[in-house]
Amino acid sequence: MSLGAAAALTLSIAAVPTPVVAVDQIDSQPLRNRVDVAGIMKHEQVFQKIADENGGTRASGTPGYDASAAYVAKTLRRAGYRVYQQRFEFPVFTELAPATLSQVSPNAQDYETATFDYSGDGDVTGVVVPAARIQIPPPDEAGTTESGCEPGDFEPAPAEDAIALVQRGFCDFAVKAANAEAAGYDAVIIFNEGQEGRTDVFAGTLGGPMDIPVVGMSFEDAEALLAQIEAGDVVMNVTTSTQVEYSETQNVIASTRTGNKLKRIMVGAHLDGVYAGINDNGSGSATLLEIATEMAKMKTQPRQMVQFAFWGAEENGLLGSEYYVENLKPINVKKIKANLNFDMLGSPNYVRFVYDGDGSDTTPAGPPGSGEIESIFTDYFASQGLESEPTQFSGRSDYGPFIAVGIPAGGLFTGAEGVKTPEEAAIYGGTAGEWYDPCYHQECDDIDNLSMDALDEMSDAAAHATWVLGRTKTLP
């Protein structure tokens, strides 16, 4: 899962209204009986072996990713699917040296910081100017602080060299940074939002190269810095050492040979990972591969064309899914009736999260029809005597480009760097006060970093939704 993906993406295709999803009561038991954890783990073991043989990584642009894509494509062709390997170029970001962040005046002080992916290279000393709509203390709901999301949140830079200070939340990091740059700032500090689990120094991805340095800061340091700024000007120095080169990667798209081509269900998961990426997102990719291969063995065929998508360069900013959607003709956008997304289905300290398509518990809501997709999952879990929780349609995974053009979407997630609450621990087990995945974006995200229970429960729900949408007669 990408740490800095957009909540609302601006793509080259105009948004096309899509009819609200309507579904029949479909018995998914035949497919769920076929999809099991043993089959998923066979694919996970292949992904781990590929990582082990390729420097410990399956990141896009590396031999480990190419080998993962080759394995997926070969497996799907053998299962009988039409397979298209969509190749594209993408920018590869490298941090040459750690970022530095220090206060020059009125007091000399060094701060812990981190470089955002695709930050520009630079050395900037200037006065720090806070963006508008910063919220101290932060709002209760994470991801809702809109500071920096509009150009008007930044007053024109007051000096030749100036640094913008902005709070994490609501919109893409790139939007905040671009708005600051357009207002004349030479560097940007993005500080964490402040809720539990969102206080430490952090850095995400900007999704594409930027000209100015962009670095992260903890909520505590930013709160103290803002207090100093109220008393007078604060001058800081920011340095980053970065470079961007271009490489080729690919999406793997597999289509059923039967089903109405005018009504397509796109089921996706990103194939790339940070390091080995066995939970993020080998778990989603392996589950998708298991569903696709077992579905191909069934005598009953889908009524709609079902397309399984394995996205590249998600960790670089949803670049694979964005490339796919940007290159769809408007008529083909209309053909996609629903997008399902499965990202991190095996978190060891998991919660059964369902994307909040109707926006009843979080904001924003998805396009019309997303609420109905949410209900497919929540009703399924309820039928199995399992509780589930809504999670924000934050745009942090590959459904983002689809909802940006009006396609209904939904999906499942078992948690990343968020902190499990005592209430969640009482329902789902696990440990309150710890991340849902303590190995999120770390080297320990390997074959041992998985909950078999989570994979079992979430893969059945994923198979159920895929089969319901693929078989329903009433889809508009």
CATH H-level superfamily title of the largest domain: Zn peptidases
The helix/strand order is: HHHEEEEEHEEHEEHEHHEEHEHEHH
Number of helices: 12
Tertiary shape: globular
CATH class of the largest domain: Alpha Beta
Give the helix proportion (percent range): 25-40%
Seen as an oligomer or otherwise, the chain set is single chain
Strand content: 15-25%
Major sheet summary line:
14 strands, mixed
The low-confidence parts are: 6-19
Total beta-strand segments: 14
**How far from one another are the termini?**
31 Å
What name does the CATH topology of the largest domain carry?
A: Aminopeptidase
Assigned CATH architecture of the largest domain: 3-Layer(aba) Sandwich
Description:
The protein is of the alpha/beta class and 476 residues long. The chain has 2 domains: 269 residues, Aminopeptidase; 149 residues, Glucose Oxidase, domain 1, CATH 3.50.30. The protein has 12 helices and 14 strands. Strands 1, 2, 3, 4, 5, 6, 7, 8, 9, 10, 11, 12, 13 and 14 form a 14-stranded mixed β-sheet that branches. The two termini are 31 Å apart. The relative contact order is 0.19.
